[in-house]
Specification:
Chain lengths: 228, 275
């Protein structure tokens, strides 16, 4: 217990000292997660809407597929993208492996199914009359879909936040695709993994606290914007 | 603020944050794969900044096991590799993946274990004999199990001891040196470690050095530029500048002057031939 308490106090002291390494890791984490969340929203929301609104017999299959994709381990996504981005892979000439962009790509793949699934769930929970009403009132299909999204915005919002949460918290993709390069692709989670491997328990703990605080601040800020 | 502006605000915020992740830095980046021992010991954070300053570039360090570090070189995903596993390095060069291998420095491996030394390793006369003592006693032995330079060395010693390590006592961690030392501390087991990581870890473990100084525990580090004829995209010019810097007078004096807890961790090749 003493060990935990002393690590915890060390952690708080480290946070107070604002080391540039911590600041860099926070910045990288936030920017790659935000980037991945934007793309995941761009893919995930339309997919969720489309699956939620179709009535074809493939719907059950699509839902199962989305559910399965949510459970794909981060290292598997990392491995797959690695295969594409390595110099030996089909996209190797782009030289993207071990860059923040690579983490964004992996993060997008991780977060998209979550965004799609949450969107799908809120489409299912929405009043089924919204879409027909909008169409009857003379809206085109896109306008009608926009109206629906407006009505279920809290669900869609939750979808985006959940996607962000998955990306900012994961370590597999960031480690494999980013390579944990100091000051460049080192995120909060890979930094925690590294510090733990070096036996720097307090430093890892400090970063863990920072990670949670940052997630808290982001969520508070977003819900403030949402509520006003 | 109405709903639409608010949503736009959120969207713009995310996009702006995301843009920061795009490759936007102008300075040249050199990519180097290396072993966890050079990175975790803190050597690279004193060795690289003077180089980066001199050539106005940035060295991206990907720290993995030696096996993986060389694989990254084979694939052309890095420009230069800085590792310790002589046999593998020679193979890497012979297969045409690397050019201009140079000796940089060395340290040595130590066999560490719990202070009460249940297998009596302290009384053995050589590393293979020590390994035999551990296996016949069935004391926990934590192996890196990750094809790193340290793991290669460990396998060599098992082979010369004539033992195929197997059983509940032989723990293949599949992790870095630091994790393995932590695991050995927790399980009261033995482990082969590079001296640098062990010294850096000494405050966090009660493991003690039980076997050291054998000739076959010598641990040389080499730096190799990835062959530009195999991978035309690699930054060979800058890679060679790094090789020259690290093996030149500046690099040598930084390596010699690098100390943890007042103890030097690495010795420049060609001096202090006590091993």
């Amino acid at each position: 217990m003493d060990f935990l308490i002393s690590s915890f106090t060390d952690a708080l002291r480290l946070i107070g000292s604002f080391s540039p390494d911590v600041v860099d890791a926070v910045r990288t984490s936030l920017s790659v997660s935000a980037g991945a969340t934007v793309f995941a929203a761009l893919f995930g929301i339309p997919v969720g809407l489309a699956v939620g609104l179709t009535d074809s017999r493939w719907k059950g299959f699509a839902v199962t597929a989305l559910n399965t994709l949510m459970a794909v381990p981060t290292v598997v996504v990392g491995l797959l993208v690695y295969g594409f981005l390595s110099r030996q892979g089909p996209l190797g000439t782009l030289g993207l492996l071990f860059t923040p962009t690579a983490i964004v790509i992996g993060g997008t793949l991780l977060a998209s199914p979550i965004v799609a699934n949450y969107t799908l769930a809120s489409v299912r929970g929405a009043d089924p009359r919204i879409l027909p009403t909008a169409l009857t009132l003379g809206a085109g299909p896109f306008r009608a879909a926009a109206t629906l999204v407006g009505e279920i915005r809290f669900g869609v919002f939750a979808a985006v936040i959940a996607g962000f949460g998955r990306v900012v918290a994961e370590v597999g993709v960031a480690m494999m695709l980013g390579g944990n390069i100091r000051g460049y692709t080192r995120t909060m989670t890979t930094a925690i993994a590294l510090e733990t491997s070096k036996g720097e328990f307090s430093f890892g703990m400090a970063l863990g606290i920072v990670l949670m605080s940052v997630a808290l601040i982001v969520n508070l800020f977003l819900s403030l914007l949402q509520r006003r | 603020m109405n709903q639409l502006t608010r949503n736009r605000c959120i969207a713009v915020l995310f996009v702006l944050l995301g843009l920061a992740a795009l490759p936007a830095r102008a300075e040249e980046r050199l990519r180097m794969s290396t072993t966890t021992s050079t990175e975790n010991s803190g050597l690279l954070s004193v060795l690289l900044p003077p180089f980066e300053k001199k050539y106005a570039c940035k060295v991206d360090v990907v720290a993995v096991g030696t096996g993986k570090a060389l694989k990254l070189g084979e694939a052309g995903d890095v420009d230069v590799v800085f590792v310790h596993a002589r046999a593998l390095e020679d193979k890497f060069v012979a297969s045409g993946f690397g050019v201009n291998r140079r000796d940089v420095m060395y340290n040595d491996f130590v066999l560490v274990g719990p202070p009460d030394d249940p297998a009596g390793v302290g009384e053995t006369r050589s590393a293979p004999e020590a390994f035999r003592a551990i296996s016949s006693k069935g004391s926990p032995f934590i192996s890196r199990g990750d094809e790193s330079g340290t793991h290669q060395k460990e396998k060599e010693i098992w082979a010369s001891a004539g033992i195929v390590p197997k059983g509940a006592w032989y723990v293949e961690a599949g992790q870095g040196m630091g994790e393995v030392l932590t695991m050995a501390t927790q399980k009261r087991g033995y482990a082969l470690a590079d001296r640098g990581t062990y010294i850096a870890f000494r405050k966090k473990t009660d493991l003690v050095v039980l076997r050291q100084g054998d000739k076959n525990l010598w641990n040389p580090y080499g730096i190799i530029a990835v062959n530009p004829r195999k991978h035309p995209h690699v930054k060979n010019d800058l890679a060679m500048k790094l090789v020259d810097f690290v093996t030149g007078p500046e690099g040598r004096s930084i390596i010699t002057g690098f100390k943890v807890d007042g103890e030097p961790l690495f010795f420049v090749s060609g001096e202090g031939e006590k091993h």
